[in-house]
Design goal:
- By secondary structure, the protein is of the alpha+beta class.
- The chain is built from 18 helices and 28 strands.
- Strands 11-15-16-23-20-19-17-18 form an eight-stranded mixed sheet.
- Helix 6 crosses helix 14.
- Bound molecules: zinc ion (2 copies).
- The site of one zinc ion (ZN) has 5 residues, from helix 1.
- The site of one zinc ion (ZN) has 5 residues, from loops.
């Protein structure tokens, strides 16, 4: 990777957008109307209005023209222009969107026209010096987009592209895009029958099918065992609570746009919970607490509902209903450090088990509006840093980037194709204990305020499963696979034998299926490969006669062994994998 900064990349891509408009005007003439062409996260776009819309076949031609413009190495030159002159310029050229842009720029703001090659565009600047600096470009797609994002305005055609300083960086990005598409959890979710979104039930609500349900249940069981080892207590709290609780917690004041509306029962208003914290606080408050009860660690796979615009919903990654592996630690200020250490340790244990071994930590410290005593914040931030350092995690500090209620630690992982995902969050909170007036009786006999730590290590189960599916490209490791082995009898004559082996395996606790369809063996094997089942056990006449199974691993390895040998192999694999 080169040392290109984000600003360099944005300038390069923004310049590429000028070249895109240049190429379009060269190829399709001046009657194409031009709108805007910014750099975006992974590339750039330009919006056009063309009488006959662009078709995908146009993209290679436009791209070829852009490459000529890059090779010609034109300098980008800016010239100030008077408003009246700019208006005349675009009025003469019948460019209504440019005139609209001009009308939106405050009168006091100076205007600049930028020219590269034979193309001039009104622009604020932020370019590379010349077209050669744009490096390597690729046009990716065409989409419709309303002018200014407003559906009452004309629909424009948006051409998306990306650009990198070098061809090899562009190639690496395109390869990653292709790989990401192959791993898309929405596509795999359907192919492997893991989950669905049912239109009639509403957007952003996930239905787990039996196979996805198995994987999720195994993941939950694993986390539950870890929680037990770490001294967490399981609790279950209601999905709806009286609205007054969310008034006390402050959600109704500061989080209401993300909450579903109230429902009325016997004249009382209830809300579906957007977070689990208030429920756990009520459990804490249900009796007087002493320092001897602390730390109190309450854990729940808590399902919450939050309103998200339908436009931003995305498979399992952005949903309206999800389950957090949530827990709240109530402790004394002195216990913060050790609770943090244990939590970070637990996060790494869990993330590692699920196959992630590349982590980075982000610590967000006190913002200006942070509530409470500065010394307390300092102490807590140091505690977080010590916890992270003791684990040898690389970390970055986001100075002042915390929320107003306390410093926070985020742990991000890199997946199999190098993408970073934020999974674990450990958040100290000084505000909710205040709002709910939580206390504990200290060794001194006086009442004190506990500190609360919110932590979710997988985050949302839905989102985590989405990440997991993409990380493994649907080929879950043996311990997580919804079906660990499938029996493939070659003919009807071996179905009985296959059943008896299957019942031995399921008796030993494994997830086994039989494909006793009338398909030919090759077809059965192909089907199971598509399902990414770790082991296929083929049984024909020889295997029945010898009392063996022919084991074909997902990796391609083949070996004949007895059922008992296979059970031993599977057991040791599962034990070592998690
Ligand atoms: Zn520009
Ligand atoms: Zn919480």
């Amino acid at each position: 990777m080169s040392a290109t900064t984000t600003t360099d990349l944005a300038a390069l891509r923004h310049t590429a957008a000028h070249l895109l408009a240049h190429a379009v005007v060269d190829l399709f003439g001046d009657d194409v109307q031009l709108a805007i062409g910014p750099a975006i996260d992974n590339g750039f776009y330009y919006d056009f209005l063309k009488e006959t819309p662009f078709v995908p076949e146009d993209l290679p031609r436009i791209e070829a023209r852009m490459k000529e413009l890059i090779a010609a190495n034109f300098a980008m030159k800016g010239e100030p222009i008077e408003r009246a002159a700019a208006e005349t310029y675009y009025a003469q050229r019948h460019q209504p969107f440019k005139l609209d842009i001009l009308r939106g720029i405050p009168l006091a703001e100076p205007l600049t026209m930028y020219t590269i090659g034979g193309f001039t565009d009104l622009c604020r600047g932020g370019h590379v010096e010349s077209s050669k600096d744009v490096g390597a470009v690729k046009l990716l797609s065409i989409a419709g987009a309303y002018w200014r994002g407003d559906e009452h305005n004309p629909m424009l055609q948006r051409i998306y592209g990306t650009a990198f300083p070098t061809q090899s960086e562009l190639d690496a990005y395109l390869a990653q895009l292709e790989e990401a598409e192959r791993r898309d959890h929405r596509k795999l979710g359907k192919e492997l029958d893991l989950f669905s979104v049912e239109e009639q039930a509403g957007a952003g609500l996930i239905f787990w099918h039996p196979k996805g349900g198995r994987v999720r249940a195994i993941a939950e069981d694993f986390v539950r065992a870890e929680l037990r080892r770490r001294g967490y207590e399981p609790v279950y709290t209601p999905h709806i609570l009286h609205e007054s609780v969310f008034k006390t917690s402050g959600h109704l004041q500061s989080f209401v746009e993300n909450m579903f509306g109230p429902m009325e029962v016997e004249g009382q208003r209830y809300r579906i919970k957007p977070m689990n914290c208030p429920g756990h606080i009520l459990v804490y408050q249900s009796q007087p607490r002493s320092y001897r009860d602390l730390p109190l660690r309450l854990a729940e796979f808590g399902t919450v509902y939050r309103f998200e615009r339908s436009g931003v919903l995305h498979g399992l990654l952005r949903v309206r209903g999800f389950t957090q592996d949530d827990a709240h630690l109530f402790c004394t200020p002195d216990q913060v450090q050790s609770e943090y250490e244990s939590t970070v340790d637990s996060a790494l244990t869990i993330l590692k088990a699920f196959g992630f071994d590349n982590y980075s930590a982000y610590i967000s410290t006190r913002p200006d509006k942070g509530l409470g005593d500065d010394a307390v914040w300092q102490k807590a931030t140091t505690a977080i840093r010590n916890a992270v350092e003791s684990k040898g995690l690389p970390y970055e500090i986001d100075e002042g980037g915390g929320t107003f209620y306390g410093p926070k630690l985020d742990i991000k992982v890199r997946d199999a194709i190098g993408r970073e995902w934020q999974l674990s969050t450990v958040q100290i909170d000084y505000v909710l204990p205040e709002r709910f007036e939580l206390t504990f009786r200290g060794a001194d006999g006086a009442e004190h305020r506990p500190v609360m730590i919110h932590r979710a290590l997988l985050g949302s189960l839905e989102r985590f499963m989405g990440v997991l599916i993409e990380h493994y490209a649907g080929a879950f490791p043996v311990w997580l696979a919804p079906v660990q082995a499938v029996m493939l009898p070659i003919t009807d004559g071996q179905v009985e034998y296959a059943r008896s082996i299957a019942s031995q395996l399921s008796g030993a606790g494994f997830r086994v299926e039989i494909d006793d369809s009338n398909e030919r063996l090759q077809k059965k094997i192909r089907n199971q490969q598509l399902q990414k089942v770790p082991y296929m056990l083929v049984v024909g006449k020889t295997e029945v006669a010898d009392g063996t199974v022919n084991v074909r691993a997902r990796s391609g390895d083949q070996k004949t062994m007895t059922a008992a040998e296979f059970v031993a192999k599977l057991s040791s694999e599962v034990a070592s994998l998690k």
